[in-house]
Amino acid sequence: MNSAAHWIAVLGSVLQSTYRHQLHPTALPEPLAEHARSFLALASQFDPTITGQAQAAFTDSMQSALLYAAVAVGIAALAVTALLHHHTDQLSPDPRSVSHRRPHAEH
Questions:
Q1: Are 27 and 47 in contact (CB under 8 A)?
Q2: What is the DSSP-derived secondary structure letter of residue 96?
Q3: Entry pTM
Q4: Is the N or C terminus of the chain more exposed, i.e. has fewer CB atoms within 10 Å?
Q5: How far separated are the first and last CA of the chain, in Å rounded?
Q6: Which of 47, 60, 51 is nearest to 19 (CA)?
Q7: DSSP for residue 99
Q8: Residues 26 and 54: beta-carbon distance below 8 Å
Q9: Does the structure show a pLDDT above 90 at 77?
């Protein structure tokens, strides 16, 4: 699995686990509550209270997943900046070692 697919899977897992943790449809019997925690589309088919809870849980879980994604992008940006700075330092000559004298013209 490539790196991008790996991170998409991680973010999906964060979203799903947060949604399941946030949704507590106490008005439903446990088998239906478990299905509601597994599928937002199913949870939205119940009464408006459970639909509202499911939508709030999904919003919270999406916020968590996007926060993880933002942190990962920030870390990647810092790493790229550090690597580019290090690479640029290796390519640039030391200004103290460069001679500013013009070569003498031969007559």
A1: yes
A2: T
A3: 0.68
A4: C
A5: 67
A6: 60
A7: -
A8: no
A9: yes
